[in-house]
């Protein structure tokens, strides 16, 4: 990644990080694709912002904004950005990227923390003042996206051992609109 003129090289992701990213790509991606809502892209993909170039774990671009997808990178903001926390990325994901994504006008930022004993999801939406505010859980603790209409995620899924499979979770999401 590139931040304020300096290259930032993060540690390689942990196995659990990659398992969760793969699960999320399948859930978000299948949902967006089957409903023809837009495109989900997994890292590494450059998201060019005002003073940085980040590589979020997952980005969603609505059909209306697919023109931001260039040959080499996404120019400007995505509609939804997902980061999955690793032990070395806590501050970067919860502080630095949160500020940058808000300043860039990214409507939703979801942070998944799969670390043992901390399994949770923080779903954020930009408020009228341009700051992120938590998305209030809906029925049964589900977090619902406004930019990906009909999509929801239950943070309790991250606490299951073993993690549920993507097909099982997807069936829950699409079966209970």
Protein topology:
Blueprint: E1 2-3, E2 6-7, H1 15-34, E3 38-42, E4 46-48, E5 52-54, E6 58-62, E7 73-75, E8 80-84, H2 90-103, E9 108-113, E10 120-126, E11 132-134, E12 143-144, E13 152-153, H3 166-175
Helix pairs in contact: 1-3
Summarize the structure.
The protein is α+β, with helices and mostly antiparallel strands and 177 residues long.
How would you portray this structure in words?
- There is one protein chain.
- The chain is of the alpha+beta class and 177 residues long.
- It is 25% helix and 27% strand.
- The protein contains 3 helices and 13 strands.
- The strands form 3 sheets. Strands 3-6-8-9-10-11 form a 6-stranded mixed beta sheet, with helices on both faces. The chain has a 5-stranded mixed beta sheet with strand order 2-1-5-4-7, with no helix packed on it. Strands 12-13 form a two-stranded antiparallel sheet.
- The longest helix has 20 residues, at 15-34.
- The radius of gyration is 15 Å and the shape is globular.
- The mean pLDDT is 91.
**What is the terminal separation in angstroms?**
37 Å
Helices and strands: which structural class? alpha+beta
State mean pLDDT (0 to 100 scale). Answer: 91
Count of helical segments? Answer: 3
Helix percentage range: 10-25%
How big a fraction of the residues is strand? 25-35%
Poorly predicted tracts of residues: none
Give the biggest beta sheet.
6 strands, mixed
Radius of gyration: 15 Å
Total strand count, please? 13
Spatial sequence of strands, sheet with the most strands:
3-6-8-9-10-11
SSE series = EEHEEEEEEHEEEEEH
Apparent shape: globular
């Amino acid at each position: 990644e590139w931040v304020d003129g300096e290259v930032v090289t993060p540690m390689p992701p942990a196995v659990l990080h990659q398992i969760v990213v793969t699960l999320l790509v399948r859930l978000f991606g299948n949902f967006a694709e089957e409903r023809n809502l837009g495109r989900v892209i997994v890292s590494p993909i450059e998201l060019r912002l005002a003073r940085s170039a980040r590589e979020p774990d997952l980005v969603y671009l609505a059909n209306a904004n697919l023109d931001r997808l260039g040959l080499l990178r996404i120019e400007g903001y995505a509609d939804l950005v997902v980061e999955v926390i690793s032990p070395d990325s806590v501050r970067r994901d919860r502080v630095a990227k949160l500020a940058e994504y808000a300043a860039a006008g990214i409507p939703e930022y979801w942070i998944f923390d799969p670390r043992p004993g901390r399994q949770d999801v923080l779903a954020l939406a930009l408020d009228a003042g341009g700051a992120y505010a938590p998305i209030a859980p809906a029925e049964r603790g589900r977090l619902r996206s406004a930019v990906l209409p009909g999509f929801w995620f239950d943070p309790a899924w991250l606490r299951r051992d073993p993690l549920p499979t993507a097909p099982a979770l997807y069936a829950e999401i699409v079966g209970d609109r």
